[in-house]
Amino acid sequence: MTTAFVAEAAAIHPQIGPEGANVRINDFNLWYGQKQALFDIALDIQRGLVTALIGPSGCGKSTLIRCLNRMNDLIDGIRIEGSMTLDGADIYGAGVDVIALRKRMGMVFQKPNPFPMSIYENVVYPLRVDGVRDRATLDATAERALKGAALWEEAKDRLKESALGLSGGQQQRLCIARAIASDPEVLLMDEPCSALDPIATSRIEELIDGLKGHYTIVIVTHNMQQAARVSDNTAFMYLGRLIEYGQTEAIFTTPKLERTQSYITGRFG
Ligand SMILES: Nc1ncnc2c1ncn2[C@@H]1O[C@H](COP(=O)(O)OP(=O)(O)OP(=O)(O)O)[C@@H](O)[C@H]1O
Ligand SMILES: [Mg+2]
User: Fold this and answer.
1) Range of the domain at 34
2) N or C terminus: fewer CB in 10 A for the chain?
3) What distance in Å separates the CA atoms of residue 73 and residue 79, rounded to the nearest whole number?
4) Ligand sitting nearest the alpha carbon of 66
5) What is the pTM of this model?
6) Residue ranges in the chain whose pLDDT is less than 50
7) Which CATH number does the domain housing residue 21 bear?
8) Residues 32, 64: contact at Cβ < 8 Å?
9) Is 180 a domain residue?
10) Distance from the CA of 57 to the center of ligand 1, in angstroms?
């Protein structure tokens, strides 16, 4: 699609508003050096639901999701304007404890990144960092998190083995277990299935379905079928802007904007 992009206000469907929002993004702008990557993003992410972020490569999905738990803090030359809040508290407020924030907002990446240690130690890692040493607490957390991540049956007899011996799909479920071990409110997933085969992917999708309600989930995906299957709400981004945001069914069946329609039907991107 080569038509010139004319920025206009995002089409936010009226079904989604600030009530029920766990995370609120307001007038959010971001620059990498001189280059602006996010423009005036306003997005209310609903508590306990799955929100999919879709849009062509380079449109700012990872940038936005990484801002939520301040993973971008480490990048030189970054500048932001606007606000993001979690339960009404400013994510970028003075005195925010970033480590504590990241525990409340767990993150799962594209490529599974288990640590080179045992399955058990991977899962209880967040508690170790906190200095928890009580064996019963660690054991209970490992079991709860592995069950939550639908890995317990496969892992319970090999907890002391290296996590690197797990399959890719198992490793990704282990990373989800590690993320939920600290009992976060929000789970951020950036293309969590893109390195997995279809069977491992469908296990992760089932898992996401089981986790919602308890957690607020934001998932970036390039797979339209996946967005349609797993999410309640979908936000479509293009060139650093939010274009349309609504209930997933409406976005996929009756989008308000031509550009959304073109993207979801595969005409560009
Ligand atoms: N660390 C960085 N420094 C400079 N520019 C960056 C950096 N990270 C991302 N960008 C730029 O910001 C824009 C948005 O990138 P981002 O990775 O957020 O896109 P994306 O939607 O996640 O893309 P993809 O679907 O390919 O993962 C792109 O133009 C990218 O080149
Ligand atoms: Mg990305």
Assistant:
1) 17-112+187-264
2) N
3) 9
4) 1
5) 0.93
6) 1-2
7) 3.40.50.300
8) no
9) no
10) 8
